[in-house]
Amino acid sequence: MARDHGPQIKDDGLYEDLLKQGNSKEKAARIANAKAAGTIDHRSTHLEDRTKAELMDEAKEIGIEGRSKLDKAALVKAIRDHR
Question: Which InterPro entries does this one have (predicted)?
Answer without folding.
Answer: DUF7218
